[in-house]
Amino acid sequence: MRTQVAIVGAGPAGLVLAHLLRAAGIESVVIERRTRDYVEGRVRAGVLEQGTVAALARLGLDRRLRAEGLVHTGTNLAMDGGIVRIDMADLTGGGAVTIYGQQEVMRDLFDAAETHGMPIVFGAEDVRLHDIDGASPSVSYRTAAGVQHLACDVVAGCDGSHGICRHFVPEAVRKTFERVYPFGWLGILAEVPPAAPELIYASHANGFALSSMRSPTRSRYYIQCGIDERIEDWPDDRFWDELCLRLGPEIAAGVVRGPAFEKSIAPLRSFVGEPMRHGRLFLAGDAAHSVPPTGAKGMNLAVSDVLMLAEALEDFFVRNDQSGLDGYSARALARVWKAERFSWWFTGLTHRFPEATGFDRRMQVAEFAYLRTSRAAQTALAENYIGLPLDPAAGRPSTEARA
Ligand code: RFL
Ligand code: PHB
Fold it and tell me: Which residue of 49, 121, 382, 398 could cross-link 91, Cys pair, CB 3.0 to 4.6 Å?
């Protein structure tokens, strides 16, 4: 088998890339270890930046998103009984985010892939990359039919944080930067109306809590928990009691309790692997970097990476110009590091760190007090939350301008 771009991983990065390439007339094959049901069933992100929504719209993948997504023009921070609303629309000149679950995004991407007959191999085991240093790389994998070989011009490593692609960047050139947080997020989904119409990020002496949603009838809540804690330690009643305590009495008054039909614990980590390219291998999304979920940036970064990669691949295949591929890693990392900074900062402001000193805590209190009264501080939060532009310095035309 032969294709132009072999894409490893059918998460948001891999599938959005496949759709972008198809729109540019470039062939690809997506190789995924799991089943469609598994990938679509993972409860993860919920907040789409405007750039992500615009990319899906450009691909004609926004019909359900427009009908069912909830446009939020504000978000809220609560600490020590005070609450500050970040009016994103006012602070950024009309900016907003859209609440639409990653599961729904995946469903739309898979449905459209099926409609267009885009090749996706599910259940591919033992994926390996070959000859990425040369001009004719290939990918091998095993299915029920035996070992398969896919020859290609370029490999896109979109296989998430536990993927194998990043390990094909040789140790000698690979630099990793990591921060592991001493806590995780325990999240639940429940078929109950959300506590408030907008998201609330709350900081409490017992730890962080987040009130989010998937729809007007479906709530998504998270609480900070220890990394050693187990789901079994958190029966529904204990979760709801702790959530209400951390959100504070005013917000808790709006919490409607109900059975949690999904409950999971995710550790928090900041991670970047540099460079995002080696030879003919290009990494995108969680395969190259992770952010703690506090800034709601993970899926959005996966999409912005592949927007840049698709542009570079179009230059390469359609215009015979390799400069975009050569510049991809630096261009993507410039945006990645800003999202890393924002996610790290927002995590630091809102979570309780076991090793924090009295000084550290006073810094959080002072930062929150500053945010409450400073339009500049609120603007900084708002512009990061709605998503920074692809290329802030006007050195290169943005994707939007070229479209
Ligand atoms: P994915 O989604 O992990 O997809 C990678 C795919 O590659 C497959 N794979 C392989 N395939 C073949 N061979 C192998 N050897 C393979 N190894 C892995 C996997 O099966 C999978 O299908 O990575 P991608 O595409 O880069 O997308 C990243 C996002 O999924 C992730 O960043 C977000 O979910 C993060 N995230 C959030 N992001 C947001 O933008 N907004 C949010 O509000 C948000 N909230 C969250 C989150 C992640 C969370 N968890 C559970 C980590 C909330 C949580 C709790
Ligand atoms: C979610 O709804 O899953 C969600 C919302 C905001 C975040 C993270 C996750 O920052």
Answer: 382
Looking at domain 5-72+98-179+269-352, its CATH class is alpha beta
Whole-structure pTM value: 0.96
**In this structure, which ligand is nearest to the CA of 103?**
1
Which residue among 43, 47, 75 is best mutated to probe the pocket of ligand 2, counting the most ligand atoms within 8 A of its Cβ?
A: 47
Domain ranges of the chain: 5-72+98-179+269-352
Let me know how long the chain is: 403
Q: Catalytic residue among 72, 204, 278, 289, which? A: 72
Does 221 participate in catalysis according to the annotation? no
Each residue's pLDDT, cut to its tens digit, for the chain (403 residues) gives 999 999 999 999 999 999 999 999 999 999 999 999 999 999 888 999 999 999 999 999 999 999 999 999 999 999 988 999 999 999 999 999 999 999 999 999 999 999 999 999 999 999 999 999 999 999 999 999 999 999 999 999 999 999 999 999 999 999 999 999 999 999 999 999 999 999 999 999 999 999 999 999 999 999 999 999 999 999 999 999 999 999 999 999 999 999 999 999 999 999 999 999 999 999 999 999 999 999 999 999 999 999 999 999 999 999 999 999 999 999 999 999 999 999 999 999 999 999 999 999 999 999 999 999 999 999 999 999 999 999 886 544 444 444 3
Ligand nearest to the Cα of 120, by number:
1
Of these residues, 137, 297, 328, 351, which one is catalytic? 297
Pocket test for ligand 2, best of 88, 97, 210, 347 (most atoms within 8 A of CB): 210
Cα dihedral across residues 329, 335, 338, 339: positive or negative: negative
Q: Would you call 100 a catalytic residue per the annotation?
A: no
Residue 385 is among the residues annotated as catalytic for this protein? yes
